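Entry:
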Amino acid sequence: MRHVAVIGSGPAGYYTAEACLKTFGDAVRVDVIDRLPVPYGLIRFGVAPDHQSIKAVAKRYEQVALTDNVRFVGNITIGEDVTVAELQQLYDAVVLATGAPHDRPLEIPGADMPGVIGSAAFVGWYNGHPDFADLAPPLAGPGVAVIGNGNVALDVARILAKTPAEFAGSDIVAHALAALEQARVRDIHILGRRGPHQIAMTPKELGELGKLERAQPVVDPADFPPEGDDALLEPGMRKAVTHLRDFAATPHRGKPIAIDFDFFAMPVAIEGDGRAERVIVERTRLTEDLRSVGTGETYMVEASLVVTCIGYRTPPIAGVPYEHGRGRFANTDGRILPGLYCVGWARRGPTGTIGTNRPDGYAVVELIAADTGAASGKTGRPGLDTLLAERAADVVTFRDWQKIEAAEVARARAGAPREKFTGIAEMIAARSD
């Protein structure tokens, strides 16, 4: 029997558990450990609440979680309830699937002012993450700056621009929906250092902006290279740029909210009287190798809310080798140390889609198969149970999660799949209702 501990219950974690089942069959026991009482990580707290089709992948993880060989061990904090070193003593393999939940810092003057919020925090706020439920972003001003040219920036802009009716069928949390209903946002600037051909946005997410009831995307036609250059792009990027060209060619329809794409725009400072009020932006140009460099020309964007969507970092864990420059665990193809592995964003940094984590998990399980024998004599699950009982840890099981989920569904608003709990205490309390 092989015993595997997976730290993190998001896509990377459950794809790793799935790979263990496929590879070892009944000769494996997998414990999926998470700090929160609820599973699925990025699916629950990172995917936009109006993208329910993407969240549906959780059903696949549920099939894995309900097998006898895999169990969810929720409400357990690594470093407090149990350490990685202790898990290594108990399990044949320990896999870090902790993702990259921390924002990469924006290193410009004023970035620490009130009103400047990282996308992990802002997305966590409208998705009901317990760490960010009390965020209270400033939404009373008309101007917002969203820094970044990826899909997260589009998500943030879209959520800010939607009408309450457009959230029907989503699982946006009540406190965020109420705040957005009272918001006075009228001008959203998406700031990117390079041009339309260098975006990291996908066609689907861009296309959604053109269908918003009260918001219109605005692009300056002068920002585009010659249209013939689009033929050199790969098909997905070409389709995304076509959306941008369509936005640039669409006459203004008098909608009350504008989503302005500011290309060749590099934020250099955030200013305000005790809180963010404006972003100072330097215009850029591209070098021959497509790097952006400042031109010295600046302009100002009025913004009482600044959301930085510039990347994420994996938090270090004591005793685990870490690459600070890349914001991930130091590893070779997923192997950190003997018996210690990492997958997903914790392994490669915040790149790829949810599906990218599946081959990642299978590749690491191949390493585990090569590195471990079928019978090491380690205690695995019983050993963890004994240790956690000695420390009076309050473990939340997958059956507990199902009760929490049922309670969320029962209190849902009309047209919403569920009303998510946003506090750990209320999550835990719901399992006994």
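The CA atoms of residues 34 and 74 lie 5 Å apart.
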